[in-house]
Please model this.
Amino acid sequence: MKEKKIRNIFTEGAIPAQQIADDIQKHATQTQIGAHSIFLGQVRADRKDGGTVNAIEYTAYTEMALEKMAEIRETLFAKYALTCMHVFHSLGRVAVGEICLFVFVSSQHRKAAIDACEELVEAIKFQLPIWGKEILDNEDSTWKENK
Model:
């Protein structure tokens, strides 16, 4: 039985724009790639419970999340003709306007990249044990519901 590779998708705090740019630039030498599909999740300033979201504090059951992510990765590589896949998700506090999720999928052709990226984002949101506590400007907090 082939052992799946467990990759760490977690980064402490917001995902820096320079990291995103660098990861994209690294693929310029991969001449078999014809398409990239990228998703960036950003913390919104939603209004709720008499306050406005200032930040989200992300926590996860890390070991389980990484194992599940490896399964999702394996499934998507089997389903789509992908060249590569990168996922970065924040842990800890991420302020409004900052990036908390970076998904980057590449393939020879756009349809595979786009479809796999969309499916991957949905799987991350609904299958990984990651939670976000919204920190409001009125000093209240509430657990975020994934939609």
Q: What stands out?
A: The chain has a mean pLDDT of 93. DSSP finds three helices and eight strands in the chain.
